[in-house]
Design goal:
- The structure is a single chain.
- The chain has 18 helices and 13 strands.
- It is α/β, with parallel strands linked by helices and 444 residues long.
- The strands form three sheets. The protein has a seven-stranded mixed sheet with strand order 1-9-8-7-6-2-3, sandwiched between helices.
- The longest helix has 22 residues.
């Protein structure tokens, strides 16, 4: 093992041995290389002639660039064309940390790390897998979860997803989650995704307290728990009484056996899906600057060996927006559009006719909601009929249809659900067991 990794491991073990035990074998071995090319380049920074960095420089010492590209960028060339650090730009890291505290007042004076910049949330989830997940280890996820977790954890790190029941009636089945936390094995990895994709459900205030209590009980029982908070849709809560803060707000200072890992970013919060900027932040009770520095260095090392760094241009554009005096007003405007669509869905689903063929799963936040079709209806056949006859696109998930109302104008939402109703009604008259056979074509 490289001596730089050993030094980081010693720091972690000295401060909190439980965190060291939570690391995967990859996580224990990774480090950010400060004694090689990067270290030598850092030492040469500010020299009159710097022949260390692997980028091209104009004769005036500005970044080399093509006019056909630079003419379209209204930023200083230094904010767009050079590499960003593998840790991310220091200014946006500091700004995002400040915003985490603003958005999550329950953090109060908790000690958390500086966020590390990732290539958006999918990459952040992958880096969490790199650092904490060994082959054959289980990751606890609800029965309804984002399908990309399969690629991120199973295909990439040979892990296993252990499912627990998401809902008990119209509420979260926290007892099911708690039972998995208390099952055999000392190390536990729990993934919390609120608002949930695909259901669009976020816990109410009491449910959030129960979630935190369940984690605390398991930690006090000796479980060493990594809680990955996938906060992709953070802030998009549309009902009163629903918790607006991330579980991270309480987990970050809950117990010495609980490492909270917040994976978030502006992708959905700030409507910049193509910018590919996200953040990974750590919190644990008793966390010190030295502990967090070690985790930050390991994370940056994993990023360095994976994608090197995240877009400097995207980080610069976002920082400009975060510091804009109209930023909050602009966000509120877009939030209200999404909320109006959510409210239109609520109003539309009051139609009693729909109950003949489908019902809504619990939802209150985010981009999505799901409807459950009555027994006998094949959701994929409904999905295909909706495309071919009604020009409506939805996602089929076993016996559910996921509907991204975030992408549908409020005026079109009644048409959307009327189309689903009509497609279900049409297919209900067929012998669905025959229609499921390969090669059968639906005719109208």
């Amino acid at each position: 093992m490289n001596i730089q990794a050993q030094e980081l491991n010693s720091t972690i073990q000295d401060i909190n041995p439980a965190v060291f035990d939570m690391l995967s074998e990859r996580g224990k071995s990774i480090f950010f290389p400060k004694k090689g090319i990067l270290g030598q380049s850092a030492e040469a920074k500010g020299t009159a002639i710097n022949a260390t960095i692997g980028s091209a420089i104009e004769d005036d010492n500005s970044p080399m660039r093509l006019k056909s590209i630079s003419k379209n960028i209204n930023l200083d060339a230094s904010q767009a064309f050079p590499y960003a650090p593998s840790f991310g730009r220091p200014d946006i890291r500091a700004r995002w940390r400040e915003m985490i505290f603003q958005k999550n007042p329950a953090l109060r004076n908790s000690s958390i790390s500086l966020p590390i910049v990732t290539n958006a949330l999918t990459h952040g989830i992958s880096m969490a897998g790199y650092l904490f997940v060994n082959p054959d280890e289980e990751i606890l996820v609800p029965s309804l979860f984002w399908g990309n977790y399969n690629l991120s954890f199973i295909n990439a790190y040979d892990a296993k997803l252990k499912h627990y029941n998401l809902f008990n009636g119209n509420s979260l089945d926290i007892a099911a989650m708690s039972a998995e936390l208390m099952s055999a094995g000392e190390k536990k990895i729990l993934l919390l995704n609120f608002p949930n994709n695909p259901t669009g459900y976020s816990p109410n205030i009491d449910e959030m307290k129960e979630i935190i209590l369940a984690v605390e009980i398991a930690a006090k029982a000796g479980k060493k728990i990594v809680v990955i908070c996938d906060d992709a849709y953070f802030g998009l809560v549309f009902e009163k009484g629903i918790e607006t803060q991330s579980p991270f707000a309480w987990l970050a200072n809950l117990h010495e056996n609980v490492l909270a890992v917040k994976v978030d970013g502006p992708t959905k919060e700030d409507y910049v899906w193509g910018f590919r900027v996200g953040f990974i932040t750590y919190g644990i009770k008793g966390g010190t600057e030295a502990l967090y520095n070690a985790l930050e260095n390991k994370t940056a090392g994993a990023i360095r060996g994976n994608i090197s760094n995240t877009s400097n241009l995207s980080q610069s554009l976002l920082l400009e927006a975060f510091n804009s005096p109209t930023y909050q007003e602009e966000k509120k405007e877009k939030f209200n559009i999404l909320k109006s669509r959510y409210e239109t869905v609520r109003q539309t689903l009051k139609n009693p006719d729909y109950a003949e063929f489908f019902k809504a799963m619990p939802y209150n936040a985010g981009y999505f909601m799901c409807i459950e079709l009555k027994d006998g209806l094949d959701t994929d056949l409904v999905r295909k009929l909706l495309i071919e006859k009604y020009s409506i696109g939805t996602i089929s998930l076993n016996n559910l249809l996921r509907i991204a109302y975030s992408a549908v104008a409020a005026k079109d939402i009644p048409t959307l659900f009327d189309g689903i109703y009509s497609a279900c009604k049409e297919l209900a008259v067929y012998d669905l067991t025959t229609m499921k056979k390969d090669g059968v074509t639906i005719t109208y």
